[in-house]
Amino acid sequence: MLPKQEVQLSEPTEQEIRERAHRLWEQAGRPEGREEEFWHAAEQELRNEDKSNTLRTPDTL
After folding, report:
1. Given this model, what pLDDT does residue 9 score?
2. Which whole-number Å values give the CA distances from 32 to 15, 19, 39, 44, in the listed order?
3. pLDDT tens for residues 17-54?
4. What's the average model confidence in pLDDT over 3-16?
5. CA-CA 20 to 30 A from 61: which of 32, 36, 41, 55?
6. Do residues 59 and 7 make contact, with C-beta atoms less than 8 angstroms apart?
7. Residue 58 — very low, low, confident or very high, per pLDDT cuts 50/70/90?
8. Cα(55)–Cα(4) distance, rounded to whole angstroms?
9. What's the rounded Cα separation, in Å, for the pair 3 and 14?
């Protein structure tokens, strides 16, 4: 049996969040006054992506 591989989840960087938030803002038609909404949505998306990219081991399948 192969040793279990562990993956450390890292927090998204400020730059990654900024770029994702900007893309979400543009896709929404560039509305004014909703900066925090797009920032939080970007953070959540990036964290969810990180979780879904974890390596699967035979015991987690």
Report:
1. 62
2. 21, 17, 13, 21
3. 999 999 999 999 999 999 999 999 999 999 998 777 76
4. 73
5. 41
6. no
7. low
8. 10
9. 34
Q: Are 50 and 30 in contact (CB under 8 A)?
A: no
pLDDT at residue 41, rounded to an integer: 98
What value does the CA radius of gyration of the chain take, rounded to a whole number of Å? 16
Tokens linked to 44: 């959540």
Length of the chain equals 61
Are the C-beta atoms of 46 and 13 separated by less than 8 Å?
Answer: no
Euclidean distance between CA atoms 25 and 3, whole angstroms: 43
Q: In this structure, what token pair is assigned to residue 16?
A: 């990654």
Residue type, 27: Q
**Encoded tokens for 48:** 């969810």
CB 52 within 8 A of CB 7: no
The three-state secondary structure class of 2 is coil
At 8 the pLDDT is 55
